[in-house]
Amino acid sequence: MKARDVMTPNVQTCMPETSLATAAMMMWESDCGVLPVVNVSDKVVGMITDRDICMGAASKHRDPSTIAVSEVISGDTYACKADDDVRAALMTMKEKRVRRLPVIDAKGNLKGILSMNDVVLRARENGKKSDLSYGDVIKTFQGLCAHRAPQTEASTASAVAGA
To answer: Which residues pair with 15 in a beta bridge?
Structure first.
């Protein structure tokens, strides 16, 4: 099964200069928790989540209408291609600990989003009527939900000393 078979096409997007308040309203109106951030050429330059908006507004101590999306998104964007196998996309989600991937073409233009919701709704027990199983979904969720090891002063000091 390919990513294009499972993804949500025609998704709402925003631009780096979009305000957090506007991005939040776009999410509300589209009933989603993430927006791909695209440039004027429709190339994906980031993703903004509802959590990014909350944390950005809280940490910047400014009105969300004055904070640009570009101020709070990270530089790391992981994506998949429409022709990628869904299991490869799930592995990326698990390794990078993200619940959604923009689906892009060879030029980096947005074609849709592949989310864990999309995958869960397409999976079948024991692979019946689908080559995407509940086991594939559970393995990905286990990777996403695993607690990160807390950093102690000793491990931080040794990491800095080794750097």
So the answer is: none
Per residue in 50-66, pLDDT (tens digit) is 999 999 999 999 999 99
Structure tokens at 91: 């592995």
Listed in sequence order, the residues at least 6 apart from 71 whose beta carbon sits closer than 8 Å to its beta carbon are: 56, 60
Task: Output the pTM of the full model.
Answer: 0.76
> What percentage of the chain carries pLDDT values higher than 70?
79
CA distances from 73 to 3, 38, 98, 149 (A): 24, 12, 14, 24
Closest CA to 102 of 86, 118, 80, 122: 80
**pLDDT at site 149:** 65
CA distance linking residue 66 with residue 41, whole number of Å:
24
Q: What is the mean pLDDT of the chain?
A: 84
Q: Of residues 107 and 160, which shows the higher confidence score?
A: 107
Looking at residue 85, what DSSP letter applies?
B
Cα angle for residues 22, 23, 27 (degrees, 5° grid): 115
Structure confidence at residue 104 (pLDDT) = 94
The amino acid occupying position 129 is: K
Residue-wise over 67-103: b if at least 16 C-beta within 10 A, else e? bbbeebbeeebebbbbebebbebbbbbbeeebbbbbb
